[in-house]
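Give me the fold.
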Amino acid sequence: MLKLKDFSVEHILDNVSTTFDIGKTYVVMGSNGVGKSTFAHALMGSPSLEVEGAVELNGKDLLSMETYERARAGLLSLI
């Protein structure tokens, strides 16, 4: 399970709170420039993005992990 609480990325995404259940399919939709790619890059740990809020992947603090740790924890199978 991927849980986001008050997830913000610079001035692109503000206070996103939602839950993604494992085994279900989700689609992130929107027009060009609304932050879809930024959302994915921030979750994966892009060092060029300032991220705030809380993100848990199966109960673990995702934002405290390095990029490779996020992949090993299973994040890539969700994105």
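The mean pLDDT is 93.
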